[in-house]
Design brief:
1 helix; 2 domains; 147 residues; three-stranded antiparallel sheet; five-stranded mixed sheet; alpha+beta
Length: 147
């Protein structure tokens, strides 16, 4: 190839490269978010605050000692929306010799019947506490077999 032909090819490659970079810059700028130029045009939606918490079921069945049962905590917010917040609340038993909570890694709201009796279950989050739920743990029934 002659020097003039090489120079022409180099010019075409340079033009192609510049065109590609421009297209790339346009594509990137159209997908990126822009910052408002005026701070007076920015509005933020207020977030709803937690107003109450309920535990379900409200009338759980008796739990056999040594068994596990799951409750659900539902939060109601100031805008009347609701959400399952079982994994966000602090679960409490009035008597841990009767009912304890399974560690959170195993799932939220799971209780373990440790002893026979009745305990109150409550949950709390952000200074809001649920009404208590009574949970009764009963002794396992024994089965006898006839010879």
């Amino acid at each position: 190839m002659k020097r003039k032909e090489l120079s022409l090819i180099a010019n075409y490659l340079t033009i192609g490269l510049i065109a590609s970079l421009i297209l790339l810059m346009v594509a990137c700028s159209s997908t990126s978010s822009t910052t408002p130029t005026s701070s007076t045009s920015t509005t933020t939606k207020p977030t709803a605050s937690l107003s109450s918490i309920a535990i379900t079921p409200t009338s759980p069945p008796n739990l056999t000692k040594g068994s596990i049962f799951q409750f659900t905590a539902t939060g109601t917010y100031s805008d009347n929306s609701t959400a399952n917040i079982s994994d966000k609340v602090k679960w409490t038993s009035s008597d841990q010799t009767i009912v304890t909570f399974v560690p959170s890694g195993a799932g939220s709201g799971f209780v373990d019947g440790m002893g026979v009796g009745t305990a109150n279950i409550t949950v709390s989050l952000d200074g809001i506490t649920s009404p208590p739920i009574n949970l009764t743990v009963v002794a396992p029934t024994s089965t006898t077999t006839s010879p």
